[in-house]
C-alpha cells in the first residue's frame, strides 16, 4: 500500500459508487485524509480556507456548465488540482478548458478501473519517501478477466450506477425476476453479501473497467 500526506476533497452524491471509491482509497492509502461533500456549492468556501492535494468532483452533480464552475474555482486557487469523474463524452467547453489546464486538471470516466484512479492520484498527492510497492489488487490491468457472464456484467454496470431492479429490467428488456437472479449470481461469484460489498469488490478487482472496455469495443463495432 501507499502512504500519502495531504487531504483530498471528494464531492459526489452518496451512491454505491462513491462508497466503493472511498473504500478503495482507504485500503490503498490508509493514511489519506478524505473530506466528503455532496454539494458543489460548498467548494468555493472550502477553497478560500485552504487548498487540497486534489479535489475529486463528480460531474453528474451539475446541470449547468462544469467549465464555468471550474473557472470560478480557478479564480480562488489557480493551482488547485482537480480530478473530474465524468461520462465518456465531454462537452466541447469542458474539453477546451481541460486542454488549457492540463497541468492541474484531469478527468476519468466515472467507473474507471482502480489502477487508473490510483495512477492519477499519485500525480497529485505527495507521497512519503520509500513507499512500498502497490498491492496486486491495486495494480490489476484494466482487462482483468472476471468470473461473470456478459449479461451479469451488464447488470453489474447498472448496479454500480445505482439503478434499482425495475430500472435495470427496463434497461435490459428483461423481467425483474431475471434481474434478481443475476444479482444473486453476482453476489455469490464475488463472494460478498451486500451491494456495497459488490461495488467495492468490483472496483478493487477492476471488473468495472472490464465493463467499460466491453462497451467501448461494442461501440466501435456498431459504429
From TrEMBL:
Pfam families, per database record: GerE
Bilayer-spanning residue ranges: none
HTH luxR-type domain residues: 141-206
Keywords: DNA-binding, Transcription, Transcription regulation
Gene Ontology biological process terms, A to Z: regulation of DNA-templated transcription
Record's keyword annotation contains Transcription regulation: yes
Key word Transmembrane helix present: no
Signal peptide interval: none
A molecular function GO annotation: DNA binding
Family annotation (PANTHER family): DNA-BINDING TRANSCRIPTIONAL ACTIVATOR DEVR_DOSR
Name by which UniProt lists this protein: DNA-binding response regulator, NarL/FixJ family, contains REC and HTH domains
Native source species: Hymenobacter mucosus
